[in-house]
Amino acid sequence: MGEAVTLALQLVLSGDPDLLEIVLLSLRVSLTATVLACLIGLPIGSLVAIGRFPGRNAVLIVMNALMGLPPVVVGLLVYLHLSRSGPLGFLGLLYTPTAMIIAQTLLIAPIVAALSRQVLEDLHAEYSEQFRSLCLTRVQAVEALLWDARYSLLTVGLAGFGRAVAEVGAVIIVGGNIDHLTRVMTTAIALETSKGDLALALALGIILLVIALGVNAAVQSVRMTATRQAYV
Amino acid sequence: MILPLAVRDLVLRFGQANVLNGLSFDLGGSGCTMIMGPNGSGKSLLLKLLHGLMTPSGGRIEWGGRAPRDVTARQALVFQKPVLLRRSVAANIDFVLRARGKDRDRRDALLEHVGLGHKASQPARLLSGGEAQRLALARALATDPEVLLLDEPTASLDPASVVAIEGIVADARARGVRVIFVTHDIGQARRMADDVLFLQRGRIAEHTPAAAFFHAPQSQAARDYLNGRIVV
Predict the structure, then answer these.
(1) What residues does B207 pair with on adjacent strands?
(2) pLDDT tens by residue, A217-228
(3) CB-based contacts of A26: which residues, under 8 Å, 6+ apart?
(4) Nearest Cβ partner of A230 from B53, B100, B125?
(5) Chain B contact set for A147 (CB, 8 A)
(6) Which of A44, A109, A226, B35 could disulfide-link to A40, CB 3.0 to 4.6 Å?
(7) A136: contact with B, CB 8 A cutoff
(8) What pairing do the DSSP bridges indicate for beta strands B75-78 and B17-27?
(9) Ramachandran sector of residue B150 (left: φ over 0; alpha: ψ -120 to 50; beta: rest)
(10) B85-123 pLDDT, tens per residue?
């Protein structure tokens, strides 16, 4: 164990090119999926937050339930659609980073939608009478809510990124864990552990933890600044 | 012009209880009407009904023959507890000017007018109570209202803030803005009112010119209120 940790630290500190490639691909896939999930989830969360329509409670139940989507199920669904015999098989996306981005986007968009809905609904409860007094359109109200909730929504985005970068089930099904093509940190950890190469697995684990800590620290720092200015 | 205002047999019911019970009155095209009365008499609810934020259970409100919701944009309501956006002082004004299609060059003049020019870049939610209320007034005035509805804007403020806000309101009134002002402050009503609408238990106890109200109140409730006796 001690030897494995030492080797892991050496790999990290030496800037091993294979390790770097895996880390960069992980970040590219998960960050892209987070941005796409925010583009999908925030408008949905906003509309449900300020909208009052028949069946809204059912929509809320579905949104909250989708937060717990098992990654392997998402991976399987995306696989079925992208496989050669599937409806989107002609795109040839299976076992590519794009397929991994699609799977992670589908996995975390419901998280972004459900969490942002709660944030925006709370803020809307505070602002709604003022907005009605100012005769704002629904689009103007949503824009104002999204902007004023920006720091809380940053945390929502972080929650989505955390889920994306740490999951293994979906990306291993649709990405295939192909070396130099679709191998990301989590799939590499799974593979190297099964091979008994604990040093590389641990090195990737350390980096994953450092990324998680770094992103959290950055967001926390931004939120503290925002709190000091009463923007949260 | 949306004035005169005609209110006839106005009823607001919550469950089985009538919180406003058959109110009828007229307001002319200029001046400052003070709405007074003990807590729970329906003053703030009346203001929200006049502004179109609530729907009456019975009776009618007509602003120049139109329903309140048709003229909400031509009025501005300042709430007792100002709802400020989570952005800078200047951005709070910018938001309203942009939303209502007004000239954004007016922002600095508006802030100077309410004595907040030097705080333009500060976070709005860090303003003191008096400053926050002045910003809310500036935001209301940014919409160029024909009628300014004020719901106890000086409650819990220090005397200097009260003087500042009364000065801003008096200036708006001098420029032709019709003011309807809810207050518990008898001194403030004496300083500013042209006429007083005194409510008690959801009914109009008295609606008379200010001089008559303060020197020879007609109702026992108003006499007790002015003499500092507890009125419920």
Answers:
(1) B197
(2) 988 898 898 888
(3) A165, A184, A185, A186
(4) B125
(5) 87
(6) A109
(7) yes
(8) unpaired
(9) beta
(10) 999 999 999 999 999 999 889 999 999 999 999 999 999
Q: Identify the closest residue of chain B to A127 by CA–CA distance.
A: B83
A219 lies in a domain? no
Q: In whole angstroms, give the CA distance from residue A188 to residue A190.
A: 5
Chain A CB contacts of B76 under 8 Å are 133
pLDDT at A215 over 90: no
* Strands B17-27, B32-36: pairing kind: unpaired
Read off the tokens for B36: 């007074």
Residue of B nearest to A141 (CA): B99
> Is residue A145 in a domain?
yes
Q: How many domains does chain A have?
A: 1
Q: For helices A138-148 and A17-50, give the axis angle rounded to 10 degrees.
A: 140
Decide if B72 and A136 are in contact by the 8 Å CB cutoff.
Answer: no
Q: Measured between CA atoms, how close is A222 to chain B, in angstroms?
A: 15
What ipTM was assigned to the predicted interfaces of this complex?
Answer: 0.91
Range of the domain at A169: 29-182
Section B215-222 average pLDDT: 92
Summarize chain B as % helix, strand, coil (round to 5). 40, 25, 35
Specify if A161 maps to a domain: yes
CATH number assigned to the domain comprising residue A151 = 1.10.3720.10
pTM greater than 0.90:
no
